[in-house]
Amino acid sequence: MLNLYAGIGGNRKLWKDVDVTAVEINSDIAKIYQEFFPDDKVIVGDAHEYLLKHFKEFDFIWSSPPCPTHSKMKLFCKSNNKQMGNENREPEYIDFKLYQEIILLNHFANGNKWVIENVKSYYKPLIKPILIDRHYFWSNFHIAYIETEYGGDIRQGHCKELSKVKDVNIDNYKIEGRRKDAVIRSYFSPILGKHIFDCAFKLVQKPLTYR
């Protein structure tokens, strides 16, 4: 299994009996991931480049490319708004790594299971996803709809509040280049991560439902 832009591994938390290679560019975050999942192979590097070179080597690929340029928050925050660690809210081009990866895997993955996740965008997606909660998903398998366990607006809140809601704590870790509340906010729902994994391997037999 390949876990790209792995963060601290919320999506992977409930996967069982699997061999996982995780790629994370921030070395401090990668160290936390390694402590959380000591049996996983953790690579500090560029997930986008790693995918291009190694995607044929894995049975299942999960990718969560950076979301800030796609997020609906781009429309709601002014350039001087420094909330959530985002100090530059000026208009900018969207990061096309997202669509590059979708097109690559859709045409060249040769039947291996893959899913790409991102936030709900401020524009109409160029390639149609499915929507669950505030997440878009593109995949080569059916993902059945599920209610997630995180209620309310988790985009807001301080680190301690978010840690309690998401049941994960990184207080004792040092992270350079990222605010801890941003890391916790991006911590993916383990239940939703397991659900999608189960859908990929047909452990969930439910019709695909769009919200």
Largest sheet composition: 7 strands, mixed
**Poorly predicted parts:** 78-87, 205-211
Order of helices and strands: EEHEHEHHEEEHHH
Q: What is the arithmetic mean of pLDDT?
A: 85
What would CATH call the architecture?
Answer: 3-Layer(aba) Sandwich
Task: Please list the strands of the largest sheet in the order they lie side by side.
Answer: 3-2-1-4-5-7-6
Q: What percent of residues adopt helix (DSSP H or I)? A: 25-40%
CATH topology: the name is Rossmann fold
How would you sum up this structure in a few lines?
With 211 residues, this protein is an alpha/beta fold. Helices cover 28% and strands 14% of the residues. The longest helix has 12 residues, at 97-108.
What does this structure look like?
- The chain is of the alpha/beta class and 211 residues long.
- Helix content is 28%, strand content 14%.
- It has a single domain, classed as Rossmann fold (3-Layer(aba) Sandwich).
- A seven-stranded mixed beta sheet has the order 3-2-1-4-5-7-6, sandwiched between helices.
- The relative contact order is 0.18.
Notable features of this structure?
alpha/beta, Rossmann fold, 7 helices, 211 residues, single chain, seven-stranded mixed sheet, 7 strands
List the helices and strands and how they pair.
Blueprint: E1 2-4, E2 21-24, H1 27-36, E3 41-44, H2 47-54, E4 60-63, H3 73-76, H4 97-108, E5 113-119, E6 130-132, E7 135-139, H5 159-166, H6 180-185, H7 190-200
Parallel strand pairs: 1-2, 1-4, 2-3, 4-5
Antiparallel strand pairs: 5-7, 6-7
